[in-house]
Each structure stands twice: as structure tokens, then as C-alpha cells.
Amino acid sequence: MHDAIIQIRADRGITEDEMRSLHNIIERYRGGSVYEICDARNGFDVYVSSVNTARHIASKILKVLGGSKKESTRYLRVENGRAVYRFTLRIKLPETASKAKYGF
Q1: Inside any domain, residue 98
Q2: Could you tell me the CATH number of the domain that includes residue 12?
Q3: What is the distance between the alpha carbons of residues 29 and 10, in angstroms, rounded to a whole number?
Q4: What confidence score (pLDDT) does residue 101 get?
Q5: Confidence band, pLDDT 50/70/90 cuts, at residue 2
Q6: Strand order from edge to edge, sheet including 4-9
């Protein structure tokens, strides 16, 4: 079960260097936190098991490539007397392509 979704979107096409940088950043957390990467319209989605890991990935992407972040929650259920939410972090890449290469 994933607790967070990172939605990476761009109004333009994502360049090859940006895509390589994104994949390098995500691969750092691939061990046990990142479940799945799915293509979506104008970008892709990353399903993550931990909200904190998703926030770390999002902040690293913003630091390297720029853009804006928006965070929202959705109520799922009550488990052991506590409410369980799914977090969605939307990262919108800037209008102009970043010059960053390889994510670092």
C-alpha cells in the first residue's frame, strides 16, 4: 500500500536531461520506499510508501530542476482508531527547460 503519490507534470515536453535527472533522484530512494513509476498525461506518477520520503524526493526535484509544489490529502479510512490519509504531491516543472544534468 502506498501512502503518497508524487505527480510530476509539465505543460511542455520533458527533456531527456530532465528525465535522466528525475530518474536519478528517484532511484536513490528505490530500495524500499518507491513502489512504482507510471506514465501519465504530461508527465508521470511515482507511488511511494512513506510521506517523508515523498517530501524528500519532491524537495530534491525542486532544488535541481525548479518548479512549484502543491500538497493535498485525501481521507481513506480509520485504522486502529486513527484516520489514514493519502498524500498527493504535485510538482509542476517550470516553463523553460532546466539545464541540470544527471540530478546532481
Answers
A1: no
A2: 3.30.1360
A3: 22
A4: 63
A5: confident
A6: 34-40, 43-48, 4-9, 82-92, 68-79
What are 67's three cell numbers? 518548479
pLDDT, tens only, 5-20: 999 998 888 888 888 8
Give start and end residues of each alpha helix (H) in 2-102: 16-27, 51-65
Q: Nine-digit cell at 55? A: 517530501
Three cell numbers, residue 102: 544527471
Per the prediction, the chain carries an average pLDDT of 84
Evaluate whether residue 62 is within a structural domain: yes
Integer Cα distance of 52 and 58 in angstroms:
10
Domain of residue 21 covers 4-92
3-state DSSP call for residue 84? strand
Task: For residue 99, tell me if it sits in a domain.
Answer: no
Mark out the alpha helices in the chain (DSSP H runs): 16-27, 51-65
Residue type, 74: R
Is 104 among the domain residues?
no
